[in-house]
Amino acid sequence: MRYYITTKSEWDKKLDQLLLSHTIFATVSNDLGLDFEFLRPADIDNIKYNCPRPVTSLKTFFLPPRENVTADRDSDSPRIIIGAPNCDIEGLSLLDEIYLDRDFKDMFFNWRRKNTIIVATDCFSYRDNCHCVSYGIKPFTTRIADMSVSQLNGTMIFRCITDKGEAFIKTVINAQLLEDKNFVESVENNNTEVEKTLTEKNKGLPDYARSGKLLESAGKNIWKKYSSDCVSCGSCTTICPTCSCFLLIDKPGFEKVKQMDTCQYPGFERVAGGEDALYELSERFRNRYMCKYVWKPKKYRSTACTGCGRCIDSCLGKINKNELIMELVK
Amino acid sequence: MELTINELKNIRFFESYSDKQLQTILAISSIKHFKVKEILFEQYDELHEVYILLSGCLSMGISIAGEKRIHLGTLEEGELFSWSAVFRPYISTAWVMATCPTRVLAIDSEKLNQTFQNDCEFGFKTMTKIAQTISHRLSDTRFQLMNQLII
Amino acid sequence: MFDNNNIYKPIKARLTDVITESPLIKTFVLAPEHEFSFETGQFIELSVDGIGEAPFTPSSSPLITDMLEVTVMKTGYVTEYMHNLKSDVNMGIRGPYGRGYPVEVFEGKEILILGGGCGLAPIRSLLYKLESMKDKLEKVTLCYGSKTPEDCIYKPLFKRLNNIEKFEAFRTVDKPDEGWTESVGVVTTLLNRVRININKSIAIVCGPPVMMKFGTIRLLEMGFTDNQIYLSMEKNMSCGLGKCGHCMMGEFFVCKDGPVFTYGEIKHNPEIWK
Asked: Which end of chain A has less neighbouring CB within 10 Å, N or C?
């Protein structure tokens, strides 16, 4: 991995210039906590680096809640997204598999991916429900994003990931190649330390690679038990970095509006004849687990959970998926 | 008119029987003809023959209050019916009526049961086939019931 | 950089005729704005402008590319609108999607088709295809069941099939009327009369869920193996692209991996009969 450095003040100045030609979203603190916000020049100094995951997941920038998919694409200015944690980056890799599949490429998703420079950030701390390491996901990014940024006092350190990212660092930011091996080592040691602490904190969690089999063979009772506090609000799936189901709504003129949808809502699988495989709340509740731990791993490369813990934080019924899986392990 | 072994071989029910076994069947069977609207047997009749539809059309059903006939369905060519003749108390659970000129193979059930005693392999094979027929009837009835419930 | 192939955008198709098949079923004859070909068993998304879109398997011949027929049962919001349409309006079509019947696998075989209700629509398209390749087939037997004689669609089809060499077609109804002279009972009763060399056969089932279930079990009992039975699954296919998630059946997207599956491919999945 190649690293580049520049000073915080240089970087801030660059961002200010970039705002003239780019739309930038970055992680800042607001009433909700840390979240991605549309960056204005006055907020550049308020960007938070190396903080664990923001409230909203990265997917929102590629799969907006609602979009007209028959309209001509706007000629948006290029985008930069700063501060995405690795759980979101790994989530995006699954979305890439679904939306950029070779048979049917979603041109809107594809355009946004190409039009965006993703600047990830290494997590120096974690939230209560962070458990990426349980999925073999590290709290720092080494793939999929274009680059990663970390702040050490007055210095900004950039890790190159893609060619696009390296070109951006070299030519746009004008950062210097970091050749001091000791410095590189200290950055990497710091990341490994965070990973170790997070692993220690989550050591009680099950082996998620094996969870699929457990969930598949789980009886009805566990689903009934844990879904008894579920109100089908869909916040777990809405906030999830990998949930990406949608509905197509028809508008006059053969226009189609694509709106994010979730299997947690009643009627998701209802067919015209009236049959509804997910009529029961416990079936809908089970569907999400099966999709994430059994079906998606069979179809794509990995489980559809990256351990961000947002679904646990956001659940109105205070349902913790880890507790459910732990109960099955017992 | 006599039936030949080759004709029996063309009936699905007898697909796996040996020539010797078919000979045994022929020896205890006869062919019967029925006219339109002729009743082969009524519900609750004591039965002495197992039938296989060779050609024609048969309607099957049950009676309510001894009077009103409810049609449950038709029988298909090659299908075995009147299976109650093989089991105690040999009382039919439905009526069967011809709705066009019909030809059936009638097997004497008492003689059939005796043959079972002498040839267990033949008995097992035949009883398995009859069990299958009844199982199909049960499954079709459930299918029919679900269709009714869904409407 | 920008890919102009929009997978969500329908092409227009002129509705040239509406044929009433039964009180609840109509066939829509469509002339797509440009040539439209599909493989039998694949489906399309048909939309009513501004109202909605629903998945249907065309019932017309896959050999015809300038015209398309779609048979629609009135069951919900969108289909009700469709039933009120008069000819000469534009409809939208997307597709064709999914995996249809692997007809090349059927060569040299006896084909047993079990159909129920509106499930005859995809089957009719398949029958056109099978007719065009009948020299390569041993036999085609269609067993079809509907609730009443009135609900039986494509009435002339049966007479025509019975006049084609190697083809035979049987019909049954749950509830006969005065003039009905054919079988009475559920569609599986027709299997009692079918003589078929199972080792050299394949079976196709298409119809309402209850019928698919009972039909498949009976075929297995007759001696068909799991991979000799082809099922056309009905799910709430919405995008047709393997993305929106509405038609997921276990790990399968019915819209992309199906809608035609062998029983062997999906039997491990408890969701298939839901």
From this structure: C
**How confident is the model over B82-93, as a mean pLDDT?**
94
Cβ-defined contact of C192 to B136 (cutoff 8 Å): yes
Give me the pLDDT at residue C147, please. 92
Nearest to B147 among C174, C189, C192 (CB): C174
- Cβ contact A295–C242 (<8 Å): no
- To the nearest 10 degrees (0 to 180), the angle between helices A321-329 and A208-216 is 80
Domain spans, chain C: 11-97, 103-232
**pLDDT digit string (tens) for B13-56?**
898 899 999 999 999 999 999 999 999 999 999 999 999 999 99
Average pLDDT over residues C138-142: 96
Asked if pLDDT for residue B98 goes beyond 70, the answer is yes
Best of A63, A104, A220, A298 to mutate (most C CBs within 10 Å, chain C): A104
Confidence of residue B1 (pLDDT cuts 50, 70, 90): low
Supply the CATH classification number for the domain C11-97: 2.40.30.10
Q: Which regions in chain A score pLDDT beneath 70?
A: 74
In angstroms, the CA A307 to CA A129 distance is 8
| Residues in contact with C61: Cβ distance below 8 Å, sequence separation at least 6, in sequence order | C125, C128, C129, C132
Query: Could you give the percent of chain C with pLDDT greater than 70?
Result: 98
Contact A71, A255 (CB under 8 A): yes
Q: Taking CB atoms and an 8 Å limit, are C183 and B72 in contact across chains?
A: no
Among positive and negative, which fits the CA dihedral A210, A213, A216, A219?
negative
Domain B5-150: state its class.
mainly beta
Give the integer Cα–Cα distance in Å for C179 and C160. Answer: 20
Class of domain C103-232: alpha beta
Query: Which residue blocks in chain B are alpha helix, DSSP H?
Result: 5-9, 19-27, 109-118, 120-150
From the list C105, C71, C62, the residue with the least C-alpha distance to C203 is C105
> What is the predicted pLDDT for the residue at C274?
62
Q: Which residues contact residue C91 at a Cβ distance below 8 angstroms, ignoring those fewer than 6 apart?
A: C12, C13, C14, C15, C28, C30, C46, C47, C48, C49, C85
CA quadruple C63, C68, C69, C73: dihedral sign: positive
Closest Cβ opposite residue A269 in set C76, C246, C256: C246
Does B139 sit within 8 Å of C188, measured CB to CB? yes
Above 0.90 for ipTM, yes or no? no
Q: Classify the C-alpha dihedral A162-A137-A55-A225 as positive or negative.
A: positive
One-letter identity of residue A286: R
Q: What's the pTM?
A: 0.89
Order of strands across the sheet that contains A3-7: A33-38, A23-30, A79-84, A116-121, A147-152, A155-160, A3-7, A176-177
Q: What average pLDDT does the segment C105-115 reach?
A: 96
Neighbours of A (≥3 Cβ pairs closer than 8 A)? Answer: C
C18-22: list long-range contacts, CB under 8 Å, 24+ apart.
Answer: C18/C85, C18/C86, C18/C87, C21/C71, C21/C153, C21/C154, C22/C146, C22/C150, C22/C151, C22/C152, C22/C153
What would the pLDDT profile of A151-173 be if each residue is shown by its tens digit? 988 999 999 999 999 999 998 98
Complete edge-to-edge strand list for the sheet that includes strand C52-56: C52-56, C43-48, C90-97, C11-22, C25-32, C68-73
Tens digits of residue pLDDT in A115-126 = 999 999 999 999
Distance CA A47, CA A36 (A): 9
